[in-house]
Design a protein that fits this description.
alpha+beta; Nuclear Transport Factor 2, Chain: A; four-stranded antiparallel β-sheet; 4 strands; flat
Length: 129
């Protein structure tokens, strides 16, 4: 059974809500729970939530914080702070399948002009089976 909440913060982020809760152990020490709650809508218009929870104890705070900071710094340094996704940007364009196929064909073409992918598959007729 979960212990009483001592201190809480909530972060609402679209369909997701993050709960940060300080709780007390039976011995009176504190620990942290991080909960992600994601809202799903059913076809009939009703909805339900899926929750994922992490329990984080004091002895792990420093290393957890160090790694979290390292990972977030890495993402920002590699990709910047701008969000790149069709969900967050109305003008986001998915890669066109035709372009993707052309790029794949170009990548498979050898320097001598032959196509590498033609040797990768063998035509099999169902009559052969």
């Amino acid at each position: 059974m979960e212990r009483e909440e001592i201190f809480s913060k909530v972060l609402r982020a679209g369909r997701r809500t993050y709960f940060f809760d300080v709780r007390s152990t039976k011995a009176g020490d504190y620990y942290l729970t991080l909960t992600e709650s994601k809202k799903f809508t059913n076809e009939d218009g009703s909805f339900h939530y899926k929750k994922h929870k992490i329990y984080l104890y004091k002895e792990d705070f420093t290393e957890f914080s160090n790694i979290l900071n390292e990972m977030t710094d890495y993402v920002i340094s590699e990709k910047g702070e701008e969000v790149i996704s069709e969900r967050h940007q109305k003008d986001f364009k998915k890669e066109d399948k035709a372009e993707s196929t052309e790029e794949t064909s170009d990548e498979n073409e050898k320097e001598d002009g032959s196509n590498e992918s033609s040797n990768e598959f063998t035509d099999v007729s169902f009559d052969d089976i």
